[in-house]
Amino acid sequence: MTDLTKAKAVLEAQLAELETRLSHIERDLAEPLDPDSSERAVQMEDDESLEGQAAIVSRDVASTRRALLRVEDGSYGTCMQCGDDISANRLAARPEAALCIDCARKV
């Protein structure tokens, strides 16, 4: 049995950190490009990288929010695919995990 209070606190801290990171990325992407063409090319490449990072962080935000919903509905720590318990070690490493390690390997 997972300590849901601790899991919720860890997930909330993780969510806050991810949302802060996403906010910084979005702020950087909103900056106008430099009118100097050589700088503009570098900034456009940087923006492409930032857009990729934003996609990854957004995915992690969604995953963390879903984990918090599982805490609330009592299904946190149970594999969404097979119904077995997710190991404490896996949850310690990836608190947002929705699948046990065996099911995650099959995906």
UniProtKB/TrEMBL annotation:
PROSITE patterns: ZF_DKSA_2
Pfam families: DksA-like_N, zf-dskA_traR
The DnaK suppressor protein-like N-terminal domain, residue ranges: 8-71
InterPro entries, per the entry: DksA-like_N, Znf_DskA_TraR
Molecular function per GO: zinc ion binding
Segments for region (Disordered): 26-54
PANTHER family assigned: GENERAL STRESS PROTEIN 16O, RNA POLYMERASE-BINDING TRANSCRIPTION FACTOR DKSA-RELATED
Protein name according to UniProt: TraR/DksA family transcriptional regulator
Native source species: Alteraurantiacibacter aestuarii
